[in-house]
Amino acid sequence: MKAPDFSYHDPRTLADLMSLLARLDDAKLLAGGQSLMAMLNLRLLAPEHVIDINRIPELAGIRVDGDTVEIGAMTRQADLLASDVLAQVAPIFRKALAHVGHVQTRSRGTIGGSCCHLDPAAEQPALCALLDAEFEIIGPDGARTVAAADWFQGYLQSALDERELLRAIRFRSWPQGHGAGFEEYARRRGDFAIAGAAALLDSAPDRSISRAAIVVFGVEPSPVRLAKAEQALVGTQLDRATIELVMEEARALDAMSDAHVSADYRLHLAGVVTGRALSEAGSLVEVAP
Amino acid sequence: MTARNITLQVNGRTVEAQVEPRTNLADFLRAALRLTGTHVGCEHGVCGACTVIVDGRATRSCLMLAVQADGAEVETVESLGRADALSPLQQAFSDCHALQCGFCTPGMLMTLESYLRDHPAPTRDEIRDVLSGNICRCTGYQGIVDAAMQTAASRRSPR
Description:
The complex is a heterodimer. By secondary structure, chain A is α+β, with helices and mostly antiparallel strands. In chain A, 34% of the residues lie in helices and 25% in strands.
Protein backbone atom coordinates (compact mmCIF):
# COMPACT_ATOMS: atom_id res chain seq x y z
CA MET A 1 0.00 0.00 0.00
CA LYS A 2 0.94 3.65 -0.07
CA ALA A 3 1.55 5.98 2.85
CA PRO A 4 -1.42 8.11 3.97
CA ASP A 5 -1.30 11.84 3.50
CA PHE A 6 0.60 13.93 6.05
CA SER A 7 2.16 17.35 6.39
CA TYR A 8 5.91 17.15 5.93
CA HIS A 9 8.47 19.22 7.81
CA ASP A 10 12.24 19.06 7.40
CA PRO A 11 13.87 21.46 9.86
CA ARG A 12 17.53 22.36 9.31
CA THR A 13 18.40 23.27 12.88
CA LEU A 14 17.82 21.75 16.30
CA ALA A 15 16.05 24.94 17.40
CA ASP A 16 13.59 24.76 14.50
CA LEU A 17 12.99 21.09 15.21
CA MET A 18 12.25 21.71 18.88
CA SER A 19 9.81 24.51 18.07
CA LEU A 20 7.96 22.20 15.62
CA LEU A 21 7.82 19.45 18.27
CA ALA A 22 6.42 21.90 20.80
CA ARG A 23 3.83 23.30 18.40
CA LEU A 24 2.53 20.36 16.33
CA ASP A 25 0.05 17.82 17.62
CA ASP A 26 0.04 14.25 16.33
CA ALA A 27 3.57 14.45 14.88
CA LYS A 28 5.96 11.57 14.20
CA LEU A 29 9.72 11.97 13.95
CA LEU A 30 11.20 10.39 10.80
CA ALA A 31 14.73 9.14 11.51
CA GLY A 32 16.15 6.46 9.18
CA GLY A 33 12.63 5.40 8.25
CA GLN A 34 13.34 1.68 8.18
CA SER A 35 10.44 0.97 10.54
CA LEU A 36 8.33 4.15 10.27
CA MET A 37 8.17 4.15 6.47
CA ALA A 38 7.06 0.52 6.47
CA MET A 39 4.40 1.29 9.09
CA LEU A 40 3.18 4.28 7.05
CA ASN A 41 3.07 2.21 3.84
CA LEU A 42 1.08 -0.47 5.68
CA ARG A 43 -1.13 2.27 7.15
CA LEU A 44 -0.51 1.06 10.66
CA LEU A 45 0.08 4.74 11.42
CA ALA A 46 -1.47 7.90 10.02
CA PRO A 47 0.11 10.88 11.78
CA GLU A 48 -0.99 14.37 10.84
CA HIS A 49 2.62 15.58 10.70
CA VAL A 50 5.91 13.91 9.85
CA ILE A 51 9.01 15.74 11.02
CA ASP A 52 12.05 14.56 9.06
CA ILE A 53 15.20 14.90 11.20
CA ASN A 54 17.64 13.78 8.49
CA ARG A 55 18.81 17.30 7.67
CA ILE A 56 20.22 18.21 11.08
CA PRO A 57 23.88 17.19 10.88
CA GLU A 58 24.65 17.73 14.57
CA LEU A 59 22.42 14.78 15.49
CA ALA A 60 24.85 12.30 13.90
CA GLY A 61 28.37 11.23 14.80
CA ILE A 62 30.49 9.17 17.17
CA ARG A 63 32.53 11.00 19.79
CA VAL A 64 35.01 9.26 22.11
CA ASP A 65 36.45 11.26 25.00
CA GLY A 66 38.50 9.14 27.37
CA ASP A 67 36.22 6.31 28.42
CA THR A 68 33.04 8.21 27.47
CA VAL A 69 31.45 7.30 24.16
CA GLU A 70 28.64 9.43 22.74
CA ILE A 71 26.72 8.35 19.65
CA GLY A 72 24.37 10.84 18.01
CA ALA A 73 20.86 9.45 17.60
CA MET A 74 20.93 9.93 13.82
CA THR A 75 24.16 7.98 13.35
CA ARG A 76 23.44 5.40 10.67
CA GLN A 77 24.00 1.70 11.24
CA ALA A 78 26.34 1.52 8.22
CA ASP A 79 28.52 4.18 9.85
CA LEU A 80 28.49 2.42 13.24
CA LEU A 81 29.55 -0.79 11.51
CA ALA A 82 32.33 0.98 9.60
CA SER A 83 33.70 2.89 12.61
CA ASP A 84 37.13 1.58 13.63
CA VAL A 85 37.11 3.85 16.68
CA LEU A 86 33.88 2.30 17.93
CA ALA A 87 35.09 -1.23 17.14
CA GLN A 88 38.17 -0.54 19.24
CA VAL A 89 36.50 0.90 22.36
CA ALA A 90 33.35 -1.25 22.18
CA PRO A 91 33.92 -4.31 19.97
CA ILE A 92 30.42 -5.60 20.77
CA PHE A 93 28.99 -3.02 18.33
CA ARG A 94 30.59 -4.46 15.18
CA LYS A 95 29.60 -7.99 16.21
CA ALA A 96 25.98 -7.01 16.80
CA LEU A 97 25.53 -4.64 13.85
CA ALA A 98 26.32 -7.34 11.32
CA HIS A 99 22.95 -8.82 12.37
CA VAL A 100 20.97 -5.58 12.09
CA GLY A 101 18.79 -5.82 8.98
CA HIS A 102 20.58 -5.86 5.64
CA VAL A 103 23.09 -3.68 3.85
CA GLN A 104 20.24 -1.70 2.22
CA THR A 105 18.51 -0.96 5.55
CA ARG A 106 21.73 -0.22 7.47
CA SER A 107 22.51 2.51 4.91
CA ARG A 108 19.65 4.59 6.33
CA GLY A 109 18.63 3.00 9.63
CA THR A 110 19.83 4.83 12.74
CA ILE A 111 20.66 3.80 16.30
CA GLY A 112 18.30 6.42 17.70
CA GLY A 113 15.44 5.27 15.51
CA SER A 114 15.88 1.69 16.67
CA CYS A 115 16.10 2.76 20.33
CA CYS A 116 12.87 4.77 20.06
CA HIS A 117 10.94 2.17 18.04
CA LEU A 118 12.00 -0.61 20.47
CA ASP A 119 11.24 -3.81 18.65
CA PRO A 120 11.79 -6.50 21.32
CA ALA A 121 14.33 -8.29 19.08
CA ALA A 122 16.31 -5.18 18.11
CA GLU A 123 20.05 -5.44 18.73
CA GLN A 124 20.92 -1.78 19.32
CA PRO A 125 18.61 -1.18 22.30
CA ALA A 126 19.95 -4.44 23.75
CA LEU A 127 23.49 -3.08 23.50
CA CYS A 128 22.35 0.08 25.31
CA ALA A 129 20.96 -2.08 28.11
CA LEU A 130 24.17 -4.12 28.18
CA LEU A 131 26.38 -1.02 28.42
CA ASP A 132 24.18 0.79 30.99
CA ALA A 133 23.86 3.58 28.45
CA GLU A 134 22.29 6.93 29.20
CA PHE A 135 19.73 8.41 26.82
CA GLU A 136 20.24 12.14 26.28
CA ILE A 137 16.89 13.81 25.67
CA ILE A 138 15.88 17.34 24.72
CA GLY A 139 12.36 18.53 25.46
CA PRO A 140 10.36 21.71 25.88
CA ASP A 141 11.82 22.19 29.38
CA GLY A 142 15.42 21.57 28.38
CA ALA A 143 17.65 18.51 28.52
CA ARG A 144 17.29 15.42 30.66
CA THR A 145 19.06 12.08 30.93
CA VAL A 146 17.33 8.72 31.25
CA ALA A 147 19.21 5.65 32.47
CA ALA A 148 18.91 2.46 30.43
CA ALA A 149 17.07 0.83 33.33
CA ASP A 150 14.27 3.43 32.96
CA TRP A 151 14.26 3.71 29.16
CA PHE A 152 12.41 0.48 28.46
CA GLN A 153 8.74 0.91 29.38
CA GLY A 154 7.35 -2.16 27.60
CA TYR A 155 6.53 -3.43 24.12
CA LEU A 156 7.50 -0.72 21.58
CA GLN A 157 7.39 1.80 24.42
CA SER A 158 10.29 4.02 25.47
CA ALA A 159 10.45 6.72 28.14
CA LEU A 160 10.43 9.42 25.46
CA ASP A 161 7.52 11.86 25.61
CA GLU A 162 5.86 12.91 22.33
CA ARG A 163 7.28 16.44 22.66
CA GLU A 164 10.82 15.17 23.22
CA LEU A 165 13.76 14.22 21.03
CA LEU A 166 16.41 11.56 21.68
CA ARG A 167 19.60 13.51 20.91
CA ALA A 168 22.31 10.97 21.72
CA ILE A 169 23.26 7.81 23.55
CA ARG A 170 26.19 7.87 25.94
CA PHE A 171 28.03 5.09 27.74
CA ARG A 172 31.27 4.33 29.53
CA SER A 173 33.48 1.96 27.54
CA TRP A 174 34.90 -1.11 29.29
CA PRO A 175 38.67 -1.39 29.82
CA GLN A 176 40.82 -2.50 26.89
CA GLY A 177 41.13 -6.28 26.86
CA HIS A 178 37.58 -6.98 28.00
CA GLY A 179 35.81 -9.86 26.29
CA ALA A 180 32.71 -9.31 24.17
CA GLY A 181 30.39 -12.01 22.87
CA PHE A 182 27.26 -11.83 20.71
CA GLU A 183 24.93 -14.54 19.44
CA GLU A 184 21.44 -14.54 18.00
CA TYR A 185 19.21 -16.98 16.21
CA ALA A 186 16.89 -15.92 13.36
CA ARG A 187 15.28 -18.14 10.77
CA ARG A 188 16.77 -16.12 7.92
CA ARG A 189 19.86 -13.93 7.83
CA GLY A 190 18.95 -10.36 8.84
CA ASP A 191 15.50 -11.22 10.17
CA PHE A 192 14.50 -10.16 13.65
CA ALA A 193 15.95 -12.74 16.02
CA ILE A 194 13.81 -15.26 17.88
CA ALA A 195 16.30 -14.88 20.72
CA GLY A 196 19.65 -13.17 21.11
CA ALA A 197 22.22 -12.47 23.81
CA ALA A 198 25.31 -10.35 24.33
CA ALA A 199 27.91 -10.57 27.08
CA LEU A 200 30.83 -8.51 28.36
CA LEU A 201 33.44 -9.89 30.76
CA ASP A 202 36.48 -8.41 32.46
CA SER A 203 38.99 -10.37 34.46
CA ALA A 204 41.26 -9.92 37.48
CA PRO A 205 45.00 -10.76 37.35
CA ASP A 206 44.24 -14.21 38.85
CA ARG A 207 41.99 -14.90 35.81
CA SER A 208 38.81 -14.79 37.86
CA ILE A 209 35.94 -12.72 36.52
CA SER A 210 35.98 -9.18 37.92
CA ARG A 211 32.93 -7.83 36.11
CA ALA A 212 30.17 -9.27 33.96
CA ALA A 213 27.22 -7.92 31.97
CA ILE A 214 24.77 -10.14 30.09
CA VAL A 215 21.68 -9.10 28.15
CA VAL A 216 19.02 -11.29 26.53
CA PHE A 217 16.75 -9.81 23.84
CA GLY A 218 13.83 -10.92 21.71
CA VAL A 219 12.53 -13.05 24.57
CA GLU A 220 10.65 -10.59 26.79
CA PRO A 221 9.03 -7.38 25.44
CA SER A 222 12.22 -5.48 26.36
CA PRO A 223 15.86 -6.56 26.59
CA VAL A 224 16.66 -8.04 30.03
CA ARG A 225 19.90 -8.09 31.99
CA LEU A 226 20.69 -11.33 33.85
CA ALA A 227 21.53 -9.44 37.02
CA LYS A 228 21.75 -12.40 39.37
CA ALA A 229 24.10 -14.29 37.07
CA GLU A 230 26.25 -11.19 36.56
CA GLN A 231 26.79 -10.95 40.33
CA ALA A 232 27.26 -14.68 40.79
CA LEU A 233 29.98 -14.78 38.12
CA VAL A 234 32.22 -12.24 39.87
CA GLY A 235 35.15 -13.95 41.55
CA THR A 236 34.60 -17.26 39.75
CA GLN A 237 36.39 -18.88 36.84
CA LEU A 238 34.28 -19.26 33.70
CA ASP A 239 33.77 -22.96 33.08
CA ARG A 240 31.04 -25.28 31.82
CA ALA A 241 29.28 -25.36 35.19
CA THR A 242 29.16 -21.57 35.66
CA ILE A 243 27.99 -21.10 32.06
CA GLU A 244 25.22 -23.65 32.68
CA LEU A 245 24.03 -21.65 35.72
CA VAL A 246 23.77 -18.50 33.61
CA MET A 247 21.89 -20.36 30.88
CA GLU A 248 19.44 -21.50 33.53
CA GLU A 249 18.65 -17.89 34.46
CA ALA A 250 18.03 -17.14 30.76
CA ARG A 251 15.68 -20.12 30.52
CA ALA A 252 13.69 -18.79 33.49
CA LEU A 253 12.68 -15.55 31.72
CA ASP A 254 9.04 -14.74 30.99
CA ALA A 255 9.13 -15.50 27.25
CA MET A 256 6.74 -14.22 24.61
CA SER A 257 5.05 -16.60 22.19
CA ASP A 258 3.73 -15.85 18.72
CA ALA A 259 2.29 -17.62 15.68
CA HIS A 260 5.70 -18.99 14.69
CA VAL A 261 7.52 -19.60 17.97
CA SER A 262 6.27 -21.02 21.25
CA ALA A 263 7.48 -19.60 24.56
CA ASP A 264 9.17 -22.94 25.35
CA TYR A 265 11.20 -22.93 22.14
CA ARG A 266 12.13 -19.28 22.67
CA LEU A 267 13.38 -20.11 26.17
CA HIS A 268 15.39 -23.04 24.86
CA LEU A 269 17.05 -20.69 22.36
CA ALA A 270 17.54 -18.03 25.04
CA GLY A 271 19.64 -20.53 26.97
CA VAL A 272 21.64 -21.58 23.92
CA VAL A 273 22.47 -18.06 22.70
CA THR A 274 23.30 -16.91 26.24
CA GLY A 275 25.74 -19.79 26.68
CA ARG A 276 27.41 -19.09 23.36
CA ALA A 277 27.68 -15.31 23.90
CA LEU A 278 29.18 -15.88 27.34
CA SER A 279 31.66 -18.49 26.06
CA GLU A 280 32.75 -16.14 23.30
CA ALA A 281 33.26 -13.27 25.75
CA GLY A 282 35.22 -15.61 28.04
CA SER A 283 37.47 -16.76 25.22
CA LEU A 284 38.33 -13.17 24.26
CA VAL A 285 38.98 -11.57 27.65
CA GLU A 286 42.64 -10.69 28.16
CA VAL A 287 44.17 -10.99 31.60
CA ALA A 288 45.95 -7.81 32.67
CA PRO A 289 49.67 -8.44 33.24
CA MET B 1 -0.81 18.00 1.41
CA THR B 2 1.51 20.61 -0.05
CA ALA B 3 3.54 19.54 -3.06
CA ARG B 4 7.25 20.24 -2.86
CA ASN B 5 9.79 21.13 -5.50
CA ILE B 6 12.83 18.86 -5.49
CA THR B 7 16.01 18.76 -7.54
CA LEU B 8 18.12 15.65 -7.71
CA GLN B 9 20.50 13.76 -9.95
CA VAL B 10 19.06 10.57 -11.45
CA ASN B 11 21.48 8.45 -13.48
CA GLY B 12 23.64 11.51 -14.08
CA ARG B 13 20.80 13.76 -15.23
CA THR B 14 19.47 16.70 -13.23
CA VAL B 15 15.78 16.23 -12.51
CA GLU B 16 13.44 18.91 -11.19
CA ALA B 17 10.00 17.84 -10.12
CA GLN B 18 7.07 18.59 -7.86
CA VAL B 19 6.10 15.76 -5.51
CA GLU B 20 3.60 15.00 -2.80
CA PRO B 21 5.54 14.41 0.43
CA ARG B 22 3.94 11.00 0.96
CA THR B 23 5.28 9.67 -2.38
CA ASN B 24 8.10 7.22 -1.83
CA LEU B 25 11.22 7.31 -3.98
CA ALA B 26 10.32 4.07 -5.82
CA ASP B 27 6.93 5.40 -6.93
CA PHE B 28 8.49 8.74 -7.89
CA LEU B 29 11.08 7.04 -10.10
CA ARG B 30 8.45 4.83 -11.73
CA ALA B 31 5.49 7.17 -12.09
CA ALA B 32 7.00 10.63 -12.48
CA LEU B 33 10.24 9.74 -14.28
CA ARG B 34 8.93 6.61 -16.06
CA LEU B 35 11.99 4.68 -14.86
CA THR B 36 10.03 1.47 -14.42
CA GLY B 37 13.11 -0.73 -14.09
CA THR B 38 12.93 -0.22 -10.32
CA HIS B 39 10.37 -2.76 -9.14
CA VAL B 40 8.01 -2.46 -6.21
CA GLY B 41 7.37 -5.73 -4.42
CA CYS B 42 6.41 -5.72 -0.76
CA GLU B 43 6.44 -1.94 -0.09
CA HIS B 44 7.63 -2.49 3.45
CA GLY B 45 11.34 -3.06 3.11
CA VAL B 46 11.54 -6.84 3.08
CA CYS B 47 11.90 -8.01 -0.53
CA GLY B 48 14.67 -5.75 -1.87
CA ALA B 49 13.19 -5.45 -5.39
CA CYS B 50 13.17 -1.63 -5.14
CA THR B 51 16.86 -1.31 -4.24
CA VAL B 52 18.56 1.71 -5.83
CA ILE B 53 21.83 3.46 -5.04
CA VAL B 54 21.45 6.79 -3.18
CA ASP B 55 24.63 8.83 -2.68
CA GLY B 56 26.70 5.70 -3.21
CA ARG B 57 24.76 3.44 -0.86
CA ALA B 58 22.32 0.64 -1.71
CA THR B 59 18.97 1.81 -0.34
CA ARG B 60 15.38 0.57 -0.26
CA SER B 61 13.53 3.14 -2.36
CA CYS B 62 10.16 2.12 -0.83
CA LEU B 63 11.44 3.17 2.62
CA MET B 64 12.52 6.64 1.59
CA LEU B 65 10.38 9.59 0.58
CA ALA B 66 11.06 11.25 -2.75
CA VAL B 67 11.35 14.60 -0.93
CA GLN B 68 14.20 13.10 1.09
CA ALA B 69 16.14 12.59 -2.14
CA ASP B 70 16.17 16.36 -2.76
CA GLY B 71 19.83 17.14 -3.50
CA ALA B 72 20.82 13.47 -3.69
CA GLU B 73 22.42 11.42 -6.42
CA VAL B 74 20.28 8.42 -7.35
CA GLU B 75 21.29 5.49 -9.56
CA THR B 76 18.72 3.03 -10.89
CA VAL B 77 19.03 -0.14 -12.94
CA GLU B 78 18.61 2.00 -16.09
CA SER B 79 22.10 3.41 -15.39
CA LEU B 80 23.78 0.03 -15.90
CA GLY B 81 23.36 -0.87 -19.55
CA ARG B 82 20.93 -1.03 -22.47
CA ALA B 83 19.13 -4.00 -24.00
CA ASP B 84 21.68 -4.08 -26.83
CA ALA B 85 24.68 -3.24 -24.62
CA LEU B 86 24.45 -4.95 -21.24
CA SER B 87 26.76 -3.94 -18.40
CA PRO B 88 29.28 -6.63 -17.35
CA LEU B 89 27.11 -7.48 -14.31
CA GLN B 90 23.98 -7.76 -16.45
CA GLN B 91 25.87 -9.89 -19.00
CA ALA B 92 27.03 -12.15 -16.18
CA PHE B 93 23.42 -12.58 -15.02
CA SER B 94 22.56 -13.69 -18.55
CA ASP B 95 25.61 -16.00 -18.81
CA CYS B 96 24.95 -17.64 -15.43
CA HIS B 97 21.16 -18.05 -15.81
CA ALA B 98 20.72 -15.77 -12.79
CA LEU B 99 17.12 -14.88 -13.59
CA GLN B 100 13.88 -16.39 -14.78
CA CYS B 101 10.91 -14.05 -14.23
CA GLY B 102 13.23 -11.12 -13.60
CA PHE B 103 11.10 -9.34 -11.03
CA CYS B 104 13.79 -9.30 -8.33
CA THR B 105 16.63 -8.72 -10.82
CA PRO B 106 16.83 -4.88 -10.73
CA GLY B 107 17.21 -4.98 -6.93
CA MET B 108 19.75 -7.78 -7.12
CA LEU B 109 21.75 -5.85 -9.72
CA MET B 110 21.81 -2.58 -7.79
CA THR B 111 22.73 -4.29 -4.52
CA LEU B 112 25.60 -6.11 -6.22
CA GLU B 113 26.67 -3.08 -8.27
CA SER B 114 27.02 -1.06 -5.07
CA TYR B 115 28.78 -3.87 -3.18
CA LEU B 116 31.28 -4.79 -5.92
CA ARG B 117 32.45 -1.17 -6.23
CA ASP B 118 33.71 -1.27 -2.64
CA HIS B 119 34.59 -4.99 -2.48
CA PRO B 120 36.46 -6.05 -5.61
CA ALA B 121 37.41 -9.51 -4.28
CA PRO B 122 34.40 -10.93 -2.43
CA THR B 123 33.94 -14.51 -1.26
CA ARG B 124 30.80 -16.50 -2.05
CA ASP B 125 29.81 -16.25 1.62
CA GLU B 126 30.11 -12.46 1.55
CA ILE B 127 27.96 -12.30 -1.60
CA ARG B 128 25.33 -14.49 0.07
CA ASP B 129 25.35 -12.22 3.13
CA VAL B 130 24.93 -9.11 0.97
CA LEU B 131 22.09 -10.73 -0.98
CA SER B 132 20.24 -11.66 2.22
CA GLY B 133 18.18 -8.50 1.77
CA ASN B 134 17.02 -9.43 -1.75
CA ILE B 135 14.44 -12.16 -2.12
CA CYS B 136 14.20 -14.30 -5.26
CA ARG B 137 11.25 -16.70 -5.43
CA CYS B 138 11.82 -18.55 -8.71
CA THR B 139 15.44 -18.84 -9.81
CA GLY B 140 17.25 -19.52 -6.56
CA TYR B 141 20.48 -17.89 -5.59
CA GLN B 142 23.19 -20.16 -7.06
CA GLY B 143 23.25 -18.49 -10.46
CA ILE B 144 23.07 -15.03 -8.91
CA VAL B 145 26.08 -15.74 -6.69
CA ASP B 146 27.91 -17.18 -9.73
CA ALA B 147 27.17 -14.00 -11.71
CA ALA B 148 28.50 -11.79 -8.90
CA MET B 149 31.69 -13.85 -8.65
CA GLN B 150 32.17 -13.82 -12.44
CA THR B 151 31.76 -10.03 -12.54
CA ALA B 152 34.21 -9.49 -9.69
CA ALA B 153 36.78 -11.77 -11.35
CA SER B 154 36.48 -10.07 -14.76
CA ARG B 155 36.77 -6.62 -13.19
CA ARG B 156 39.99 -7.66 -11.48
CA SER B 157 41.54 -9.03 -14.69
CA PRO B 158 39.78 -7.44 -17.66
CA ARG B 159 40.40 -9.14 -20.96
